[in-house]
Amino acid sequence: MKTPIQLQQQNLEELGSRMPVPIYNRTDNKIGIVHVGVGGFHRAHQAYYLHQLRQLGEASDWGICGIGLREADTKLSNILKKQDHLYTLMVKHPDGKIEPEIIGSIVDFKMGTTDPETVIARMASVDTRIVSLTITEGGYNFNPTTGEFNFDNPDIQHELRHPHDPITIYGFLTAALKRRRAAKLPAFTILSCDNIEHNGDMMRKMLLAFAKEQDKGLAKWIAQEVCFPNSMVDRITPVTAKANIDTIAQNYSVADAWPVTCEPFIQWVVEDKFSNGRPAFEKVGVQFVHDVGPYEKMKLRLLNAGHSVLGILGAIHGNPTINACVEDEVFANYLRVFLDEEATPILGDVEGINLEDYKDSLFERFSNPNIKDSVGRICSESSAKLPKFLIPTIHENLAIGGSIKFGTLVIAAWCYYSDKKVDQQGKPLEIIDAMSNELHQVASESKNDPLAFIKQENLFGGLAKNDDFTRTYTSMLQKLYTGFRINELMQSMI
Ligand code: CS2
């Protein structure tokens, strides 16, 4: 094996003989986008779209500055710094073909935890025209029962008392927007890229609630000046594994400490309302529409919910990956009936999309054997995901007398999983969830009170008070606790 070349700007020419590299000038472009939450997904999606645009010789005013607001982002910050913010994106096809490419659209990275002033200044800079976000479902800080902003969060309390010492996205956005207003600069667009229905509207509502507490005049200015387009984002991006780093080094002789792998499919549907201009993303396939609602709902209720169905049931069964789940006929058939009989009937028409084709494409995507998307990633933060992906489908079906049993088994299985913390082969499950302790506590009370788990109204709303639901749920829970295998239960239902 040749000694791998360090991924760095100065080595791009040499690296260009191994894989495509940025051919645009990365050093003297403006930073037009400040992006908060630079995980694998952002690097496989928005940063990739922008990279393609820059390869076409466009968008030189739209460099990305990544921002980390959590301690955990320090590792990526250090790695990107060492690599001049370059990274490899490996697109993995189902037939085994790998397309690697070095992506250069991120040109800077700052940490809000150690350097808040620089982050605020960057957002407030005249060049910044979009602040985009992938802060995860949990980052929006709303109370799921009331849908209102959660002022009880101690970080929020701190920021309200100390506006110069922001911690969360809300403290940073208001501090930066306040400066722009004072400097008579136009507002930036806040572009939400998280898997939440009406993500832009949600961000607007939350930010205005926070800003009103801080400065009513500012809140009014934000309401008038800042656009919050809703957007639907899609590309399956597994967690980077050590094997991916090794592949880049061994097969391409490139030393990249944090590459990203993803599937070939990519989609971004965005409402075309921006406060201060935008890159011509339509030139690289982004769809701009008037109303993104139907697309968001379709994607969250089919793809994301489909993932959760496979993830939770697959975790208990002992499946390591999503493709291992769909290779199993029972899981594949179960997913199909869930999608057909419970998720699809409440969707209505989605303009320009044939839902049957869309569902077929999900099976193709989920079965890509080279993605190796772990059920652990899918099950992580289920307490933030299921209330957006799956539970609304159950509520909506209850309201119209539709089928609920396929979704309900997932909730019963989630309770069992949270309680037992081992799969049905006895192997420990690593549960990553901000609410894991509470979930374990209430789930373990199910032996005395079968409804204990679903009485958490912040997750389930009023499901525990609905007889149709509780009847189905308790019978499934009982079966799981009396030793039924999850795949036998699934088989008996399809
Ligand atoms: C997944 C998503 O986190 C999850 O549970 O469903 O990350 C999914 O892979 C992406 O939304 C695909 O666009």
Task: Quickly describe the structure.
Helix content is 46%, strand content 12%.
For this entry, give a set of tags.
494 residues; alpha/beta; Rossmann fold; N-(1-d-carboxylethyl)-l-norvaline Dehydrogenase, domain 2; five-stranded parallel beta sheet; binds D-mannonic acid
Query: What do we call the CATH homologous superfamily of the largest domain?
Result: NAD(P)-binding Rossmann-like Domain
- For the record, give the distance between the C-alpha atoms at the N and C termini, rounded to a whole number: 51 Å
* CATH topology annotation of the largest domain: Rossmann fold
The count of β-strands is 13
Radius of gyration using CA atoms only? 23 Å
Shape: globular
Query: What average pLDDT do the residues reach?
Result: 96
Strand content range? 5-15%
Structural class: alpha/beta
Would you spell out the secondary-structure blueprint of this structure?
Layout: E1 5-6, H1 12-15, E2 31-36, H2 40-44, H3 46-55, E3 63-68, H4 74-82, E4 87-92, E5 98-103, E6 106-111, H5 116-124, E7 130-133, H6 154-161, H7 169-182, E8 189-192, H8 199-214, H9 216-225, E9 231-234, H10 242-252, E10 254-255, E11 260-262, E12 267-271, E13 287-289, H11 293-317, H12 322-327, H13 329-343, H14 355-366, H15 375-379, H16 382-389, H17 391-400, H18 405-420, H19 436-444, H20 457-460, H21 467-481, H22 486-493
Helix pairs in contact: 5-7, 7-8, 8-9, 11-13, 11-16, 11-18, 18-19, 18-21
The site of D-mannonic acid has 8 residues, from helix 11.
Keywords: NAD, Oxidoreductase
Protein name: Mannitol dehydrogenase family protein
Pfam family, one: Mannitol_dh_C
